[in-house]
Specification:
Helix content is about 40%, strand content about 15%. It is of the alpha+beta class and about 140 residues long. It has a domain at about 10-100: Double Stranded RNA Binding Domain, CATH 3.30.160.20. Helix 2 (about 50-60) crosses helix 3 (about 80-100).
C-alpha cells in the first residue's frame, strides 16, 4: 500500500478481519460480515522510519493498543469492499499526517512594553478591589 514517495506499507503488515456491522444494510447487516477491522503494528513495522512511527503512535490516540497496534474499524458502507477501502484510506491518511515533522517552537521573552502593560493592569485591578473594601472608621 503506497503512502507517499518514500513510504510503502507491505500488504503482509496489514491484518484485516471482517465482522458484523451495526450500521446501514437492513436484514443484510444481520447475516453478512461487512465491517472491517484493520490492524497495523506501528511499533514493529519495518516500513516506517522511527520518527514517523513515534508520531503515528501519538496521532493514533485511542485507536492504539498497549502493544503498539493501530486498530481501525470501518463500517460506514454497506459492502465489505467499500469498508475495506475506507479503512485502508484512513490508515494511509494517518500515516501521511505522521510524516509531517512539526516545526520546533522557539522560546521568546515578553517585551518590556508587555511587562509594563501587565503590571499596570494589576495595579488598576488592585486599586479597584481596595475601593470595594468596607472601611471601619469606628462607626
Amino acid at each position: 500500500m503506497r503512502i507517499n514517495d518514500q513510504i510503502t506499507l507491505d500488504e503482509g503488515e496489514l491484518d484485516e478481519r471482517f465482522v458484523r456491522a451495526s450500521g446501514p444494510g437492513g436484514q443484510n447487516v444481520n447475516k453478512v460480515s461487512t465491517a472491517v477491522e484493520l490492524r497495523f503494528d506501528a511499533r514493529r513495522s519495518p516500513s516506517l522510519p522511527t520518527g514517523v512511527s513515534i508520531r503515528l503512535q501519538k496521532l493514533a490516540g485511542r485507536r492504539l493498543t498497549d502493544d503498539g497496534v493501530i486498530v481501525i474499524r470501518a463500517d460506514r458502507h454497506r459492502t465489505q469492499e467499500r469498508n475495506r477501502e475506507d479503512a485502508r484510506e484512513r490508515l494511509a491518511e494517518l500515516v501521511r499526517e505522521a510524516t509531517h515533522v512539526p516545526k520546533p517552537r522557539l522560546k521568546t521573552k515578553p517585551t518590556r512594553a508587555s511587562k509594563e502593560r501587565r503590571l499596570e493592569g494589576k495595579k488598576v485591578r488592585s486599586t479597584t478591589k481596595k475601593m470595594r473594601k468596607a472601611r471601619s472608621d469606628g462607626d
